[in-house]
Amino acid sequence: AFGSGSKDVIHDDGGRDHGDHDMTGAMAVSSNIIFAKIADSIGDEKFFSYIRKFGFRTKTSIELPGEEVMPLKELGEWSGRTGKTVGFGHEIMVNPMQMVMSYCAIANGGNLLQPTIVREWRSSDGEVLERNSPEKVRRVISEDSAAQVRAMLRKVVETGTGQRVN
Questions:
Q1: pLDDT tens digits in sequence order for the chain, 166 residues long
Q2: Residues facing residue 114 across a β-bridge
Q3: Among 81, 102, 112, 154, which one is most buried in terms of CB atoms within 10 A?
Q4: CA–CA separation, 36 vs 83, rounded Å?
Q5: Residue 135 and residue 62 in contact, taking contact as beta carbons nearer than 8 Å
Q6: Rounded CA gap, 107 and 89, in Å?
Q7: What is d(CA 116, CA 154) in angstroms, rounded to the nearest whole number?
Q8: Over the range 12-42, which residues count as b (16 or more CB within 10 Å of their CB) and which as e?
Q9: Residue 10: helix, strand or coil by DSSP?
Q10: Cβ neighbours, 10 Å, residue 70
């Protein structure tokens, strides 16, 4: 448990404690405790800046009507627990396109790209008439960091909680 001695103790799934892990192991077992500790060590201000860089507080501007931006408290409104719980996915809501964009940023070497519905238009005989090129919005993490996260996500599928999709 994390936060022992307070009324807001954080537990892993089912009240378990997965024990100590490195970041890869924490992702593989989806440890709330470890992610809360990591978020706490990063600090609320830096963590909040990454949330913004990944685009979780803004519309993706995809060519579809009705996109909603999910609310997230301003940094000054965070309680002493908010950063920790956002670290494992509580107190934050994202729409599906924002989640896809964040994973694509990891896949694209740390670059957040503008999503688009149509990649290219073709004639009836298959000739490419027009092609949309990916538009970089911004770099959110380094190429090295993105490669490390991709390796961690691979372990989640190979040995962790994502094994059923493997």
A1: 566 555 678 878 766 666 678 888 889 888 889 999 999 999 999 999 999 999 998 889 888 888 888 778 899 999 989 999 999 999 899 999 999 999 999 999 999 999 988 888 999 999 999 998 889 999 999 999 999 999 999 999 998 888 887 6
A2: 135
A3: 112
A4: 8
A5: no
A6: 20
A7: 26
A8: beeeeebeeeeebbbbbbbbbbbbbbbbbee
A9: strand
A10: 11
The answer to whether 112 touches 55, Cβ cutoff 8 Å, is: yes
Residues in the chain: 166
Local structure of 150: helix, strand or coil: helix
Sign of CA dihedral 144, 149, 150, 154: positive
pTM of the model: 0.82
CA dihedral 126, 130, 132, 133 (to 10 degrees): 90
Give the C-alpha separation, 61 to 137, whole Å: 11
Angle at 34 between CA 23 and CA 83, to 5 degrees: 110
Residue in the block written with tokens 């509580």: 90
Contact, 44 vs 84, CB < 8 A? no
> And the tokens for 96?
């599906």
Buried b (16+ CB within 10 A) or exposed e, 71-91: ebeeeeebeebbbbbbbbeeb
Distance CA 137, CA 77 (A): 28
Tokens of 9: 């103790």
